[in-house]
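We treat protein structure as text, and this decision shapes the records that our systems exchange. Because each token names a local backbone shape, the row as a whole describes the fold. An entry from our holdings is shown next, in its original layout:
>
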Amino acid sequence: MKIKKLFKTVLTGTMIVLFAGLVYFLLNSYLLTYKIHTQGLVIPGKEWTLSRSGDGNFISSFKDNIKGVTTSFNVTEFSRGDVVGFELNPDFEEANHIVQGDTIGYIHSNEEQRRLIELVDALEVLNSELLFFTTGQKPEDIQVTDEKLKLAKQDLETEKILFERNRKLFEDSVITHQEMDLFLNQLKLKEYEVQIRAAEYSSAITGEKPEQEELIKSKIIRTQNQIEKIRERLGHFTVVSPFGGVIMKNSNNLPDMMKINVFDTTSVMVLLPVEIFDKRFTHRGDKVRILTKSDRKILEGNVIKIDNVVQKINNRQVFFVTAEVKDQNLEYIGELTEVEIITGEVSAWEYLTRSFNKTISK
């Protein structure tokens, strides 16, 4: 009786061990595909951005999303009180495609234009002074220059009266700021006209002065350099596209918070946050399947970059993976998609082990 019971116990134990061994063998023999599920943001391979900050400055940046670096960042500052605007090239009000070197738009600065006009007028005054210092004048020419000076002063007084009238209209909001700037420029022109005529008259009655001539020449050179610098700065106010692609205009923001993007059309990326547990299972070249939410289309790609910096999202430690999409359709730019990273086949036992450990690690 005891022998029979012992035999039954041994047989049962043997069967259990054999069954466990069989299960373990099958779990190690049967292969399953280990996939990492996450969400991804569709981004262009390269992007250039022009935006206007709240303080009126313009900021441009060039970002290489393939390498994950911002290769250039520039801020164009303007003086306080300057009236600055941006004018989009009419060709891109409806069109979206752009090629390298195309003019996107123009930045206008009243202050820079005013300074340029002042310097150009000042240069004309200096050139007139130099001319009269070097040539001299006859008595009849002196009388003519005197008459021109008197006439210029009369015109200036008349312009001052008109400007004061327009200033009151501006204060009463009858005329616009742009119209007031025009009246101010007209007044400045009359003032410079008086200076030119005064210089002509002064030169006519004083005769040649070599030391004065050298001083004026140095002033001319300095003024020309200032004009060149302002014109160079104004040249940068013509905004051109650094590469070909698609232009995106953010028309929903306020005018002083505008934003324009140019996306490279040669590559499309997906930026993926992946939980830190799966980092050792993720490799460059892994296949990626992306499910778009807009039209439920499946896109395919491959992992090209794995970030080595750990970050926190929703109190979870993650690292970022960049995948290149084979379908270069830019209509998905900015869309949040469902993504699975296919890391390869593992045994069923390994698959269950990873899934269990991943669950308890959360």
Notes: The mean pLDDT is 77. Helices lie at 2-29, 110-135, 139-171, 177-206, 210-235, 348-361. The radius of gyration is 38 Å. The first strand starts at residue 31 and ends at 44.
